[in-house]
Task: structure prediction
Amino acid sequence: MVDGMNSTDLRLRQGKSRTRKAVIGVIVLAIVAGGGWYWQRQRSIDAESGYRTSIVERGDIRVAISSTGTLSAISTVTVGSQVSGQIIDVLVDYNDPVEKDQIIARIDPKAYETQIAQGNAQIASARASLTQAQATLRNAELDYRRKAELVEQQLVARSDVDLARAALDQARAQVNSAQAQIRQQVASTETVQVNLDRTVIRSPVDGVVLTRAIEPGQTVAASLQAPELFVIAEDLSKMKIELSVDESDIGQVKVGQNVAFTVDAFPNRRFDGRVEQVRLSATTANNVVTFPVIVTVDNSDGILLPGLTVNAEIEVSKREDVLKVANSALRYKPADGGTAAVNPRAGGRDGSGIVDDLTRTVAALQVDSKQQGAFDAALAVVKERQTARQTQSPTGSASGGGLGMRGGLPPGMGNVAPSGNMQAQIRQRMMERFQTDFAAFRSTLNDEQRKTWDMALSELVNAKRAQIYRLVNNAPQAVTVRVGASDGTMTEISGGGIRDGDAVITGERARE
Result:
């Protein structure tokens, strides 16, 4: 019976294994087939048109700045000696944990103990002198009073009274001098006592000993500056990285950005950090200007060590679910210098226009129902105006949120590049229209939301624009799009009626 059950279990496991392998095989075939279809499609498009093309796709773009730096403790304390002498005890070693006020070393105290004994003797001597001076003062006071009484009876000369008065003043001065000498000796002895206490070196913080620069028997001299005895890291569960960022990239670095980094000690593991500070103290080396950027790192597991070299990437921008195109499409210009047809419906559709970008911005603001209602109402007005313009003029455009511009140009401009002044006027008109359309929605936002909204609107209206060429009916069609983030290979684009799956020209095939 047991053998029968075992054979049944074996057949079930074999059946599950075959099913799993079949599913994996189907997935692999689907991937291969999809890749083959894409390659064949691209090849057929290129072959038919004589142009090399790239397909617009939707996905994520992550923009990061690469830099190198060194790990270190957030706070390190250098423990020195304020007194000179010979080290007689070293009570901690490298990597030892220490607590605040824990004794970590001792300096030979004999010289200071001797000075204290000498000071105590001098204090005793000064006190004896004070007693003698006080006795002299009492005698001088009695002598002066006697002579002052006798001079009234004309039994002593007035000069004798004057001499007694002078002797009294001298006695008082000697008492004051003896008292001052005692205070001086006490202060001197207290100073020696402070130095004696300093012969016991204590840890100023809780932490871990990073370096130890002394050995028993070594003599330290603190005449000019405190010699370095130990370096203690206050807390290695939190560490920092000081990155050197080039001046051309520092404008993109902001506090709070995420940082991913690796260290050579653990090449297969990625660590995370956060930009804590962008320091203003620039450094110039070989005519290259860099700025220090401080990144904080959680090291709760204690795996990271001070001094490790870090290869870091600062994530300055991450755009999710956006249209992106190969950078070569932005560089392409017709070889013959001729003009390509301009898209007559360069509208912002399928989530690629400014309005759709603002919709994503509002979603990120986490607005409440009232705020969402105000935004939807303003959005409906904008879309109604877009539809009206498209209906009234077949060559009109909804680009720019219904401002009647084609690819960022005023109607009738065709594919003529606008001047700088005209571009500024276009952007100003777009900004004014959007501010008017969404004024009621903006008034419902709090200060932080309003700041984010204004920044997003300004970035969209003032975004860089570029002309790309979409392949339509085997002919290039010029389209002006807004250019966003780029990772060096792919660039975010929006507007111009560009949709996911469109073929854009990246080059021309050699004519046979």
